[in-house]
Write a structure and sequence with these properties.
The chain is mainly alpha-helical and about 120 residues long. The protein is built from 6 helices and 2 strands. About 65% of the residues lie in helices and about 5% in strands. It is elongated, with a radius of gyration of 20 Å.
């Protein structure tokens, strides 16, 4: 496996672990559990996990691996980048910074404006 493939596996591992922890599935998944999510054999994955431990992204815990603060930050950023198209507002929706969050009256006006534009 070349260095680019190694970086891709790294991103996939950290994304999967970030997601698993956020969903309450596992705080310290084993290589077998992780291999189900990323499609790499547990044996091959062990090599990458050892590298992630030595790089400071993971730490070994009883029966598996846990994200370090560095690994969590990378996993979170990578996860957000990977799924940005699925999490950004769709046409006609406002975002968290919209002026309509200032008051219930502004929220009603924003909704009215958005619905009016959709039906026009």
């Amino acid at each position: 496996m070349d260095e680019l493939e190694a970086l891709q596996v790294r991103d996939e591992v950290l994304q999967a672990m970030y997601w698993m922890r956020a969903e309450g599935l596992s705080e310290g998944p084993s290589s077998v559990e992780l291999s189900r999510f990323i499609g790499v054999s547990p044996e091959m994955l062990e090599v990458f996990l050892a590298r992630l431990v030595s790089d400071g992204d993971l730490e070994q815990v009883f029966g598996g691996y846990a994200l370090t603060q560095r690994g969590e930050e990378h996993g979170k950023r990578s996860f957000a980048d990977e799924f940005a198209d699925l999490t950004r507002p769709t046409h006609g929706e406002c975002d968290a910074d919209c002026w309509c969050h200032d008051s219930p009256e502004e929220a009603a006006k924003c909704l009215e404006d958005r619905v009016g534009h959709v039906h026009s």
